[in-house]
Amino acid sequence: MLRLRHVDLKKEKIQILAVPVCEDANLHHDPALTTVIKKAKKLKEFNGKKDDEVTLYDLPEIKAQRVMLIGLGKCVQVDLETLRSMAGKTAKYCIKKELTDVWITVPESDKLKLEMSAVLEAMQEGAYLGNHLFVKYKGTNKKKALKQINFLVTQETAKKFRRLPSTVASICQGTTLARDWINTPSNDKTPEKFTKSIVSAANKQRLAVTVLNESDLKQKKMGALLAVAAGSQSKPRLVLLEHKAKGAKKTVALVGKGVTFDSGGLNIKTGTTISDMKADMSGAAAVAATLITAAKLKTKVNIVGAIPIVENMPSGRASRPGDIIRSYAGKTIEIGNTDAEGRLILIDAISYVVHKFKPEMLIDLATLTGACVVALGEKIAGVFSNDEDLAASLILSGAKTHERCWRMPLPDDYKELLKSDFADINNMPSARWGGAITAALFLSEFVQDTRWAHIDIAGPAYSKKENAYCGAGGTGFGVRLLCDLMKKL
Ligand code: BES
Ligand code: ZN
Ligand code: ZN
Fold first, then answer.
1. Cβ 418 under 6 angstroms from ligand 1
2. Element (H, E) at 266
3. Does residue 369 line the site of ligand 1, with CB under 6 A?
4. Which of 219, 293, 451, 486 has the smallest count of CB within 10 Å of its CB?
5. Angle at 300 between CA 298 and CA 301, to 5 degrees
6. Half-sphere exposure of 470 (CA within 13 A, CB side)
């Protein structure tokens, strides 16, 4: 679907040609394009300022049916995210106009202080992700995605980067897979159904798949995970996915929170939009999609994904506030609040993975706390880590993919807030403030001496509003980030 090609604009039949334009510099070598941009600027139809746009028809210089000029703003301010967004908006515009194909010209100018490979990657990502639709549940007014997205480049560039489109497409397909899972309503992704969907996608990629069902979990004494699942009609699962790389020594573990619906349990949620809690499995979706992508790309490191999947519901069988349970690791936990369920399912998965696989490092992703959204807003994830290098590496990957991460502290003395009068630890902190930190500290009690990072994605996992390259709903946050990190290890 993504293609890099060089063609003659005078001859090629094109539905729409999208051209990124700076307000203060010419980014394109093609004389026909330069003429068209100059004319538009001269008539003051268009000035190249950010988000300025104009569509021109029937130009003598270019055979395309439409040429759309899109402003990028000042040349020095253009970064990869500007280009990613431009490509995403272009794809969305074309979908709205019911087109099937688009051509986007790639600026190949040294005026942009950006690497060509990074420019190509960003533009292809934006277009691919902007072209994603979740219309499974629509009968009427069903939008149609573009069939072909072409990038106009020089012959040399097309040749040099000929393998890039399929790599970018694979990674973005991971992101859109995660988005589809997140957008699926909870009635169609009960733990059993979500598990089946993961397993069927994983089996297509030669991943080793193990599913622990309720009786396996009981036999293994995963008391924390089982306590969260107790109130639901639907049975819990722990899904293990393994990507084995030939000759690789290192194993990285990824753990993702998979609460298919978080009602809060008996501490039922009030105030927040409870329907958004179908997205409480976004960490699980990101981890599963990353493993599937890693297998597809034959990533050179061993990866094990552990995905605890439950539904958090109130009922006569549900765990009560005040209940004391025993975790897989043996620590007893007082359930101070049934809505702090994410940490409970995560610690059993984490303990199990640490015990069984002894990974070099472990990263967990979770829509864990509203407090993290209060701290960092809806677009930035919180990173908590006991390892400087791992934290730095994650933050760098996030800057590259624009899945932004901000380091948060793990202060030892805050652990006091998790004390219980009756059990080893309480899942509910005794103070309201610093909730993202106390949640991370709770997890830290179960990682032993493993290099570990916890990414709280409660903010960026889900968005009520669409943006340049994502529709309203699940964003797939984490997949491109983790794929980039795995590439560096
Ligand atoms: N799934 C929620 C966290 C959440 C909030 C995700 C908003 C996405 C958007 C989590 O299980 C939860 O309810 N956490 C509680 C913890 C508290 C009871 C200690 C919270 O954040 O209020
Ligand atoms: Zn909750
Ligand atoms: Zn939750």
1. no
2. none
3. yes
4. 219
5. 120
6. 25
CATH number of the domain located at residue range(s) 2-156 in this protein: 3.40.220.10
| Alpha carbon distance 317, 368 (integer Å) | 24
Contact by Cβ (8 Å): 211, 237 = yes
For residues 302-325, average pLDDT = 98
Q: Are 13 and 62 in contact (CB under 8 A)?
A: no
Q: Quick one: average pLDDT of 252-268?
A: 98
Are β-strands 405-407 and 302-312 bridged in parallel, bridged antiparallel, or unpaired? unpaired
Same fold, 2-156 and 169-488: no
Say how many CA atoms lie within 13 Å of 193 toward its Cβ.
14
**Pocket flag, ligand 1, residue 435 (CB < 6 Å):** yes
With left for phi above 0 and alpha for psi between -120 and 50, is residue 195 left, alpha or beta? alpha
Tell me, which fold does domain 169-488 have in CATH?
Aminopeptidase (3.40.630)
Q: Please list all protein residues whose beta carbon sits less than 5 angstroms from ligand 2, which is an ion.
A: 262, 339, 341
Query: Can you give the pTM of this predicted structure?
Result: 0.98
Q: Taking Cα atoms as reference points, which of 93, 82, 73, 81 lies closest to residue 21?
A: 73
Max CA-CA distance within the chain?
Answer: 81
Helix ranges restricted to H, 8-68: 31-42
Of 369, 441, 442, the one to substitute when testing ligand 1's pocket (max ligand atoms within 8 A of C-beta) is 369
- The model's pLDDT over 64-94, given as tens digits with 9 standing for 90+, comes to 999 999 999 999 999 999 999 999 999 999 9
What ranges do the domains of the chain cover? 2-156, 169-488
